[in-house]
Amino acid sequence: MTEVLHRYAQLGGTTGRTVHGIAMPYGEVAEVRDGYGPAYRERFVRGSFTRTIAERKHKIRLMAMHQERAFPIGMPESLAETDAGLEVAFRVTPTVAGNDALALIRDGVVTGFSIGFVPIRSRVVDGVTERLEVSLREVSLVSEGAYAGAQVAGIRSAPPIRITTNEHAQRVYEFLKML
């Protein structure tokens, strides 16, 4: 009987173009301003992104500082609701703007996330607007966000290569020697 073995190998020198972290923490209260009207207190609850992830995940773009008149700098690899909040991972496109954003993250200049959304269902509890459901439009890299917990966790490389047979392992090894 032939057994298929699974091994995982990380490629050295990967591009490191996936930025990830918490785009919106749950339960945290922040004072926000919508650009019109007075400031108010706001909090997101778990489940507020469920529908938008199911229906619009492929349409969400990564932006820089909510610059709607600029091209997006990335596409989502994952959007997921966890106990901590909306966890995201975006593949940053190799453009001048994308490269600049990655350099700023690596240097610690850009550390936060912010979101652009349309509120669908909200309620006010003890003077705090709770977002129960929103339509997520974009996630932006920002130097300082409204929510302290909306932070870039880091930049990671491409996912590992899955090696399933000895022959496949040998081909990967030969390829890596050429680099």
List the helices and strands and how they pair.
Elements (H helix, E strand, L loop, with lengths): L6 E3 L8 E8 L4 E3 L7 E5 L5 H7 L4 E4 L9 E8 L3 E8 L3 H11 L5 E14 L2 E15 L9 E5 L4 E3 L2 H13 L1
Parallel strand pairs: 4-9, 5-9
Antiparallel strand pairs: 1-11, 2-7, 2-10, 3-4, 6-7, 8-9
**What is the string of helix and strand elements?**
EEEEHEEEHEEEEH
Distance between the termini: 36 Å
Any idea what the radius of gyration is? 20 Å
Specify the helix fraction band: 10-25%
Overall mean pLDDT stands at: 87
Uncertain parts: 4-14
Give the number of domains: 2
Which range does the strand content fall in? 35-45%
| Number of helices in the DSSP assignment | 3
Shape: elongated
Number of DSSP E strands:
11
Structural class: alpha+beta
Description:
This protein has helices at residues 50-56, 96-106, 166-178; strands at residues 7-9, 18-25, 30-32, 40-44, 61-64, 74-81, 85-92, 112-125, 128-142, 152-156, 161-163. The protein starts with 6 loop residues before the first strand and ends with a helix. Strands 3, 4, 5, 8 and 9 form a 5-stranded mixed beta sheet that branches. The chain is elongated, with a radius of gyration of 20 Å. It folds into 2 domains: 1-15 and 159-179, no CATH class; 17-156, no CATH class. By secondary structure, the chain is of the alpha+beta class. Strand 8 (112-125) and strand 9 form a beta hairpin. Residues 4-14 have low confidence and may be disordered. Helix content is 17%, strand content 42%.
Observed structural traits:
179 residues, four-stranded antiparallel sheet, 2 domains, 11 strands, single chain, alpha+beta, 3 helices
